[in-house]
Amino acid sequence: MLKMKRIILTAALAILLLPLAAQKKPDTVYTFRFVAQDDMFYVPWGGNDKELARLEECVEQLRANILAGKVPLHVDGYSTSAGSVDGNLAVAKVRSNRVKSELIIRQGLTEECFITRNHSGMGDYVTVRIAMPDDKAKDEEARLAAERTEQQRRAAEQAEKQRMEQQRKEQERIAIEQEQARLAAEQARADSYTLSLRANLLRWATLTPDLGLEWRITQSVGIAVNGSWTSWSWNGADRRYALWEVAPEVRWYLGETRRGYIGAMYKAGQFNYKLSATGRQGDLMGGGITGGYQLRLSDALSLDFNVAVGCLHADYEKYEVIDGVRVRAGKETKNWWGPVNAGVTLVWKLF
């Protein structure tokens, strides 16, 4: 009778515990150890045989879902003893393939049943994780969270790019405004006047009075006219130095300060030179290209350094003085190519 009670009690406990056993999930992560610096999968070594048996039992229960792609097997290979990242990844890949080959051969699985990742470092082993339905929900949630994080990162990156672009445009705007302000300041400091009085100091140094005027039509265009006149006799009129010249000129002022210029000039006049036994008296005319620079001394005064290169044509008579009387000695014509004018001119700006 006692024995019968024990049998009934055991059966009742078994019936009560059966649903709990049916609800228990199989283990979902399985670890296979590998010898350092070796990619061979030794099944009896390090408890790999027991771990493989547990994995096969779980695969057997979920075979249909695994083959249907509903429950994938996540295989992660690790290696830390190859000496380099690339070497570790290569060894980890071989180890993952060894474990997958065992399951393909023993359980009839295919490569499509696995999701494989390989890693450098963290040890020398391979893990197989079976994503159960609950795990798949967690994986989907993690994936969605990762996507949200990536979207947030991209949005932050785009916002940073827009901020940098706005900052760049603002810097460009400030630079343009500064350049415009600088040009305006240069414009304000530019040599600008309407009418000026001129005196070529080089002519004055040779006892040839020289005066002129310049009219600035605009800040960049001016018209100048210079005139020279002198008449000297000495040694009883045996020596003579006399001339007059008129030289109109058109100028184009260059640069922001408008102090350098180029131009075109024309010259006409008469001369009478007798500095030796033979004198020369006649007409001259010519012109050329001018260039120069005005050095500002003050608001009212400047020094104008200039030179002209071109051609001068002279028709003149030669003469000698005998007993105080000029005696004609011939007639000549000459053309001169080269410098035709030079000056260090004091400029007084009238207004």
Would you kindly provide a written description of the structure presented here, covering whatever features stand out?
- It is a single chain.
- It contains six helices and twelve strands.
- It is 36% helix and 42% strand.
- The chain is rod-shaped, with a radius of gyration of 54 Å.
- It has an eight-stranded antiparallel beta barrel. Strands 1-4-2-3 form a four-stranded mixed β-sheet.
- The model is unreliable at 13-26 (pLDDT under 50).
- The protein has helices at 2-23, 48-61, 63-67, 85-107, 133-189, 201-205, and strands spanning 29-33, 73-79, 114-120, 125-130, 195-200, 210-216, 221-234, 239-254, 260-274, 279-296, 301-322, 325-349.
- The chain folds into three domains: 25-131, OmpA-like domain (60s Ribosomal Protein L30, Chain: A, 2-Layer Sandwich), CATH 3.30.1330.60; 145-189; 195-349, Porin, CATH 2.40.160.20.
- The longest helix has 57 residues, at 133-189.
- It starts with a helix and ends with a strand.
- It has 351 residues and is of the alpha+beta class.
Mean pLDDT: 85
Look up the CATH topology of the largest domain. Answer: Porin
Beta fraction of the residues?
35-45%
Using only C-alpha atoms, the radius of gyration works out to 54 Å
CA distance, first residue to last residue: 142 Å
Q: Are there runs of 5+ residues with pLDDT below 50, and where? A: 13-26
Strand order of the largest sheet: 5-6-7-8-9-10-11-12
Total count of domains = 3
CATH top level label of the largest domain: Mainly Beta
Order of helices and strands: HEHHEHEEHEHEEEEEEE
Helix content: 25-40%
Tally of extended strands? 12
Number of helices: 6
